[in-house]
Amino acid sequence: MLSRLKSVLFRASFDAAAFTAPSDTLSPPRTVSNGTLGCFWGTQHIFLKHFPPTPAPGKGILRTSVGYTGGNPLVKNPAYKSVCSGATDHAEAVRIEFDPAVVSVGFGIYSFFYRSHDPTTLNRQGLDSGTQYRSAIFTHSPEQIEIARRVTQEVQAERFTRKNRTIATEITPAGAWWDAETNHQLYLFKHPGGYRCPTHRLHW
């Protein structure tokens, strides 16, 4: 208890730069992937914990942000409260910029996407329910669509078919992206004791 109290009282100030690759490593060709797998706090947290950008050279992820996508195209710049109401049909998502020379989109990003949540529950992760918590991959090229479908089929066959469960993940071309409010960015790094969905863990 004393050690936990000390960690709260004397914790070093939060440094957001520690979660973005150094500027001199941002020059390689970058690939973007958007994914939704429940609450975006836990999604961003688990990806950055396993693919940290720093110390350089990192593990492939260069930059992330949480935001909203996949919703009603007539709704511009949606806010957290309206997304959580379900009225806009946007999903809480994470936008990942990564170096494809270090980590592949298929057996890196997409495979980890499936490992780190339950893709068989429709519009729900744990106790979080609603379309904003749906499992989805938003692709940025025809190649990403093909890779996402192939990885999905492989994960289905290897992990879920024998359990009589079916992946419910949506695979669709990416549309407009809206960054979430500043207080949601890197939330669980700023607030280590904050809420996290229990499905955001490595399932295999």
UniProtKB/TrEMBL annotation:
In this chain the Peptide methionine sulphoxide reductase MsrA domain maps to 37-196
Entry similarity comment? Belongs to the MsrA Met sulfoxide reductase family.
Question: Is the keyword Oxidoreductase in the record?
Answer: yes
Tell me which SUPFAM superfamilies the record gives. Answer: Peptide methionine sulfoxide reductase
Q: What UniProt keywords apply to this chain's record, in alphabetical order? A: Oxidoreductase
What is this enzyme's EC? 1.8.4.11
Protein name, please? peptide-methionine (S)-S-oxide reductase
- Report the Pfam families cross-referenced here: PMSR
Judging by the UniProt lineage, the source's domain of life is Eukaryota
Gene3D superfamilies tied to this protein: Peptide methionine sulphoxide reductase MsrA (3.30.1060.10)
Q: Which organism is it from?
A: Mycena belliarum
Gene Ontology MF term list: peptide-methionine (S)-S-oxide reductase activity
Do you know which PANTHER family this protein is assigned to? PEPTIDE METHIONINE SULFOXIDE REDUCTASE, PEPTIDE METHIONINE SULFOXIDE REDUCTASE MSRA 2
Does this entry carry the keyword Cell wall biogenesis/degradation?
A: no
